[in-house]
Inverse folding.
């Protein structure tokens, strides 16, 4: 089953294809900014029963360097079969579209990134016929973006940074900076902000940083209700709403008695929990929180 971090690490390039040249500059590789980008079918399956599928495939058109295909692979771990698959992808794409192709591998793990960055030559040692040279983005090559100003300047790169540094000590600062930048973006473009919020949550996966992200989204009720609360409701995770509510109350310095805490944690009605969460933004006591509600 494809994981949420896997999806976020390649979907961010669908959301903002211009992220590719900006991100790989840290690798010392220069690509022109695309003037247009077109999604291509990701299914590389042949007519025979052999399925091969790249994660994201885009055609990038530039004013300076012409057009090329960008194949993005989100790699969660080392896989001895992958280099052969990647070489196949590139050869297939060139044969089908008659266009140069670049392989970008995105890894959250340093060891995986180091493994993926190796050049792999195919053919006898005295005459390698084909050399695979993927570009690799990982924790050591994507910068830590930990200020609201830097995050607002390039939100796509900040989302990628949050995913690739989700287990690093800097994760808290990255997420706080990103939350501030997204709050500013939401005022101008709520739909785009929602996409970035979703990609961030996916990219964090099941890490402690994901709990902080829920807390940050809970602080701004407009973001929390439009994104995380809907996801929690869809998944039936009333426990997540209860925990978020307790975080908001604690953050606002509201005293929560054992009785009130038990009432919150045992409530399994999503509408009631959402009502309480909304009231938590302005309430000064838990009595105000529970007024005229059941649960």
């Amino acid at each position: 089953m494809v994981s949420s971090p896997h999806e976020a690490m390649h979907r961010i390039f669908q959301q903002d294809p211009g992220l590719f040249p900006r991100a790989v500059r840290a690798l010392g590789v220069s690509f022109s900014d695309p003037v247009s980008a077109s999604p291509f079918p990701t299914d590389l399956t042949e007519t025979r029963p052999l399925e091969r599928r790249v994660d994201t495939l885009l055609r990038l058109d530039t004013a300076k360097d012409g057009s090329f295909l960008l194949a993005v692979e989100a790699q969660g771990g080392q896989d001895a079969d992958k280099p052969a698959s990647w070489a196949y992808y590139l050869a297939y794409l060139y044969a089908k579209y008659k266009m140069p192709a670049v392989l970008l591998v995105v890894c959250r793990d340093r060891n995986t990134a180091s493994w993926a960055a190796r050049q792999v030559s195919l053919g006898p040692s005295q005459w390698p016929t084909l050399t695979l040279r993927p570009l690799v983005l990982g924790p050591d090559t994507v910068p830590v973006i930990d200020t609201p100003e830097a995050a607002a300047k390039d939100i796509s790169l900040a989302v990628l940074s949050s995913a690739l540094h989700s287990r690093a000590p800097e994760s808290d600062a990255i997420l706080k900076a990103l939350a501030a930048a997204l709050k500013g973006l939401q005022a101008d473009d709520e739909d785009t902000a929602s996409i970035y919020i979703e990609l961030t949550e996916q990219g964090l996966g099941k890490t402690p940083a994901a709990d902080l992200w829920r807390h940050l989204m809970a602080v701004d009720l407009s973001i929390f209700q439009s994104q995380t609360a809907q996801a929690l409701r869809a998944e039936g995770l009333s426990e997540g709403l209860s925990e978020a509510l307790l975080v908001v109350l604690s953050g606002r310095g509201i005293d929560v008695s054992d009785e009130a805490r038990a009432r919150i944690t045992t409530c399994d009605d999503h509408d009631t929990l959402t009502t309480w969460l909304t009231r938590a933004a302005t309430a000064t006591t838990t009595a105000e929180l529970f007024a005229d509600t059941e649960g």
About this structure: The chain is about 50% helix and 15% strand. The radius of gyration is 22 Å. The first helix runs from residue 4 to 15.
